[in-house]
Structures are given as C-alpha cells and as structure tokens.
Amino acid sequence: MNEFMKVEPLHILLAEDDDGHATLVQRNLERSGLVNGFTRLRDGQEVLDYLYSRGTFAGQAAPAQVLLLLDIKMPYVDGVEVLRQVRADTRTSTLPVIMLTTTDDPREIERCYQLGCNVYITKPVDYQAFIEAIQRLGLFLQVVNVPRNGIHP
Amino acid sequence: MNTKLSIFRKGVILVAIPLVAQILFVGVLLFVQADQDEAQRLALHSKQVLAQTETAHRVIVEAQTSLRGFILVGLERFARDYETQRDRVPLEFTRLNELVSDNPPQQRQVERMSELASRFITWMNVTMQKMKKSQRQEVETRITSDEAKRLLSDLRQQMDEFLAEEAKLDSHREKRLKHSESLSFYMLFSGVGLAVVSSGMLLTIFSRSISQRLEVLFNNTRRLAAGEELAPRLTGGDELAQLDRVFHEMAEALHQKDQENEMFVYSVSHDLRSPLVNLQGFSRELDTTLKELRSQLGRHELPVVLKERLGKMLDRDAAEAIQFIQTAVMRLSAIIDALLRLSRAGRVEYRWQAVEVRGIVQRVVQSLHDSLSRKGAAVTIGDLPHCWGDLRAIDQIFANLIGNAVNYLDPARPGQIEVGWLPESPIPGLAVYFVKDNGLGIPESLQGKVFVAFQRLHPAAAPGEGIGLALVRRVVERLGGKIWLESKPGEGSTFYVALPSLPLSSAAEPAKLEPAANTIPLTTQQE
Q1: Which chain B residues have a beta carbon less than 8 Å from that of A104?
Q2: pLDDT at residue B271, as a whole number
Q3: Which pTM was predicted?
C-alpha cells in the first residue's frame, strides 16, 4: 500500500445501472487489494448530484479526491454526458475519468477520448478477461501518484 | 430540347418540324415550277411571233413575185397565184395581231405594218387590173415609179423595228427562263442539303433529350440492383426525369432501411452482451464459492456417506451445470460478436486509397504460417495489381478467403492454394483477384448459401460462427466490387473478388485523405 494513498485517499465513484456489473466490479477491485472508499451510483444524474452536492446529495460534501468509473449506457443521463459536463466544469475538469462499458465500437471510443476521458476499458464477456481488466485497473490506481489536480492525459 | 416537355410532346415536335419543313419546301418548289412554266410559255410565244412576222412578209413578197411573173409572161397561173397570196396577207396580219394582243405597243406596230401592207396590196391590185385591161403603158409607168419600192421598203423597215423589239423581248424571256431553271435547280439542291442537316440536328436533339437520358436511367436500375451509388439526378420535368426521381427515392429508402437494420442489429446485439457479462461473471463467482465449499468440506468432520454425497453434488452436478452455463455463454457471446462485426462492416468509415494487394496477401499468408506447415500446404502468390479501397477492409477480405482455403483443405491430398488475378477482367473498371484451393469443395446446391450469415458447411473442419463469407461479401459490396465462386466437391473451390482498379468518381469519398485517428489503448480490436 502506498503511503501517499493514506494521506490522500482516492475515492472511487462507480456509475453503473446494472447491479450485477456493479457487484462484480466492486468485488474484484477489493480482491485486487484496493481498499479505497467506494461509492456506487445508478445513473449519470446521481453522479452529477453527488459531485456538485445537489439533489439527494445536497449538503454532503464530495470527497476531495474522486476517480470516476463511468458506464456509458445508463438511464436519464448517460456516461458520455456525465463526462462532458464534468470536463466542462472547472471544479471537476481535471478529475480522472475511466470509461467502463460493454461498447467496443471504435467511434464511441473515439468520442470518449475526444471528450477527455483518461482511460477506456471494455467489459469483456469473458470473465477472466474482465477480472484481469478490473484487477489491472486496481493495480494501476495503487501505483499511480494522483496529484491534487488529478491525472492529465 | 427543353427537358420540361413530356416525351409525347417531344415526339410531336420531332415529327412536326420535318413535316412543316417539307410542306414549305413543296410549296416553294411548286411556285418555282409555275414560274418556270410561265417563262417557258413566254419564250415559246416570242418565237411564234417572230415566225408569224416572217410568214406575213413572205406572203407579201410571194404575191409581188407572182404579179411580176404575170406582167412579164402573162400566164394566167401567175394571176391566180397572185390572188391566193394576196388574200392570205390580211389573214396573216390578223394572226400576228392576235399573237401580240398582250403587248399594245407591238400591236400598234402590227397595225401600222398591216396598213402599209394593205396600201401595197391596193397598189398591186390596181397594177393587176391595168395589166388585165392591157394598159401596158400605164403598167410600165407604175412599175418604174418608186411608189411600190417605197411602200415595200417602209413595210420592211416597220417589220425590222417590230422584229427588233420582239427579238429584244425574246432574249429577255430566254434569260428569264434560264434564271428560272437554275433557280429551281438550286432550290432542289439546297432542299436536299437542308433535309440532311436538319435530320442530323433532330437526331442529335433526340439523342440528347431521350436516348442518353434513357441510358442514364437504365444504368441507374442496374446500379440499384447492384447496390451501387446512383448517377446524379436527371434535370427536367419529363417522364424520364420523374422516373429517375422515383429511382433515387427508392435507393434512398433502401439505403435508410439498410442503415436502420444495421443499427437494430448493432443495438440488439449490444444489449444482449450486458446480461452475458453477469451470467458469465456470476457463474464464475459460483465456481469460486463451490471451490471454497469443497475445501471447507475437507476440513470438517462429517459422516463419510454424507461427505461423499456432498462431494458428488459439488464436484459432478454443480460443476457440470456451471460448465454448461459457461459454454453456452461463450457460444452466445461469440455469436453476438459475429453479429456486431457484421453490422460494423456495414458502418465503419472507409479511408479510400490505392491499396497494394500483394503486400496484404503476403502478410496474411505469413500469419497463417503455422497452420500451413502443420497441414503441409503450399501457397503461391501471383503478381497482383493495386486496387482502390480501404486497407483494412481489403485485408479482411483476403484474410477470410485464404483462411477458409486453409481451413477447408482436403486431408486426403497435399494442399495447394493459389492467389492470383485475371489480366483480362470481365468487368470494366474492376480488377478480378482469385483465391484457388484444391480443398473439400462446395456442392453446387449449397454454393448459393455460402455467403449467408451463420451457414456452415463443414462445421467439423474448423471452429467458427459461419460469418466469414457473409462479412467478406458485405465488405466487397461496400467497396463497390463483386464476389462469386466456382467449386466442385472433391476438387476444390475458387473464390473470385472483383475490386475497383481506379478511383470511383462518384461513389468514393476522395475528401477523406487525412489519417484517421484510431489509436485505442487497452482494448483489443476484433477486426
């Protein structure tokens, strides 16, 4: 465990409308040894409310260091729209954002990178590959030094 | 010709223009003909007048001759001749008078001549009577006097004037006749020339406004059937332009349907993936839990019978169930991936460029090196020309075709695969490549099915979803090409791929020349 992580705990925010996917992601991140704070939200609107302390999260200050794990296909506000709004707002424009989705359409991936996502991960149906992707992500989050201003691509 | 007119009206115009021209021409010709007839008639008339004048003169001279004869010889026959000739004189002058009735000055001249003639006749009559009465002395005096000579020379002079006038008229009329004749000749000549030129012009107009446009239309129906881009719309508002518009609308509707279909396949197969992640994920979770249970079971004291039963339930029943679930999920996932690939083949944007096919084929063969040497098969690559298309799409085509050739070789004989091209292309503008093998071959009854998705002919020979050739056909058609095969079971198959050999003028997108950004980290592209 990185000493730095204890000082600046990185809070993982997972936006995922599928309960099963959310469970699998959380379980495997834990198995990879990641012990960060973890919050799971169901759609893009909840993510925005959480980040900007609005709606159901009014009055609750969001953690200082947040990493966004966004699914693309979500009801109400989808992942791409969350990414766009987060990048447009100066308070959150430097947050690390990882897209985690079943879509492997090159155009969709292209669009997410253009909008400023840091990493794009496809959820493979093959469980082993999925676990590996999540665990690699966990390792990545452990070793990367996350400065106050977030990760720059 | 104005393209707004209907074909019927164009036809009417095409028929009416030459018809009106012909009627006009015939009219002009008739007029010229009448003019020529008139000139001919007048020319003939002058000749008659001249002849008649000569006749009148001759009759007078003959009368005088007979008179002289009678005076000299005294034969009664001369007196009779004289009377006959003398009586003819007024008749001849009356006839001459009638001939010049259309010309008052000449008519007056004839009257003067007639007057002089009658005076001369009177003189001759008197001389004759004196001769009959045998007054020779008086006759002699009359004959020697100048009177008769003067009368005759006056008459002659008047006649010469008359003849000169008539000759002038005659030459004038002759000229007019010649002019009229040459006019009618030129009219005929230029009429024929005009007919040839105007026919040519009408033919050109017909060709432009109907033939050529019909050809465009015909090509469009062919293109529509072949799924190619249509030619630009015909201008105008006639039936042809309307028909062309309908074709364009049809093509547009077809294109839209195709896209909707592809979007549908794409989103359905995509939505199917999401629950599969759960199925696969939680069956693995279950597997992990079972292993945990098994190790727990080993650690605890339990009756042997129960332990055995529980062990069987865990190891056999549950493990088997999970195995089946996972196999089914992987199979379903492979099918969905194949569907996604197929739908993507219809949607990805192409970067049009000249593609070096030989290099692609060499790389494909290299990547198949292992399975080729395992099967002991040989590949020969001919001298392949460049084609016009998308690099990855063309790579996909040859990877699939050569891969198939390797997969479906006949184990009974050493495999031989040939990649070549036909220097004499049967389709203009397309280069025809072929991949030929001596493998298992395809029965004729099934050859139509090989390009249909999820149809597998030799499922045991190689794993797969039966998507390869369907994908290849889709890619080839999007590139503006064609694919077909020749095959005999037990002898092998030849797949022909015709690809554009030159940049397509209309269908291609020549604007997209900048390199496409397609760097996708952390994901593995499936094509």
Answers
A1: 340, 523, 525-526
A2: 81
A3: 0.53
